Amino acid sequence: MTATPAMPQRTALVGQVINILRSEIASGRWPVGSKIPVESELANEYGVSKATLRQAVQALVHVEVLETIQGNGTFVRASDEVGPVLSRYLAEEDDVTVLEVREAIEATAAALAATRATDNEIAAMEKLIDRADAAIAIGDIETSNARSVDFHAAVVSAARNPVLQHFYNAIEAATARTIRSWTAPEAPEHFHHEHRDILAAISDRDPERARTLSREHLAPVLDAARSSIPR
User: Fold this and answer.
1) DSSP type of residue 73
2) Cα–Cα distance between 156 and 210 in angstroms, integer?
3) For 10-50, how does the pLDDT look when each residue is reduced to its tens digit (9 = 90+)?
């Protein structure tokens, strides 16, 4: 049962309501993509005026945690302020920078996943690779690339490190961009074989092998991206 949030005091009300809203989102009461309760309901729940509640909501809209859609309500767009800021920043970065960040996060995540992934998570990752292979078999490179993105995201999720997860969520769009940009038509099948090797190391509970294979998986792509930069 979800605990009732502490009611704000009558000082710095807007700031306190902002913190309560952040806490509600972080706790999972309102997952990303969900709609929060209407203004009057929340104002009553927190014991504040609608004007105070409205200011708090607008503050989180400004940092792109919430989004208000006229006529539809207010929706959760991010779990915190970090993701939107990093996403905007990385959208302007070159592929080499993104790939270097991916290497750091994904290699560490693979090692952690080897010690923390559940059997269900491992089975789900295997299904993603199977779906990628099925897409390759019919020449559907777009779907194959999308399942690659999903596979890497699943490895990070299985690492169960909230800081790594926040950073990876922020680079997810940039990750998809690098996969689309640096996957040659003849390469997807090879990449998915490497995904199977990484998954095997995770399944075998071998963190160092998982870390090494993850780095080796990205190394040729990173080298190619670096060599493409004019000198």
Assistant:
1) E
2) 12
3) 447 899 999 999 999 988 899 888 999 999 999 999 999 99
Residue 128 CA to residue 37 CA, distance in Å, equals 35
Confirm if 93 and 174 have CB atoms less than 8 A apart: yes
The H-assigned helical ranges of the chain are: 13-27, 39-46, 50-62, 82-91, 95-116, 119-137, 141-159, 162-182, 188-203, 207-227
Q: To the nearest 10°, the Cα dihedral for 77, 106, 222, 146?
A: -50
pTM above 0.85, yes or no: no
Q: Which of 60, 101, 67, 98 is nearest to 81 (CA)?
A: 60
DSSP conformation class of 184: -
Degrees (nearest 5) of the Cα angle 165, 127, 116?
A: 40
Query: What gap in Å lies between CA 63 and CA 65, rounded to an integer?
Result: 6
Q: What pLDDT score was predicted for residue 218?
A: 92
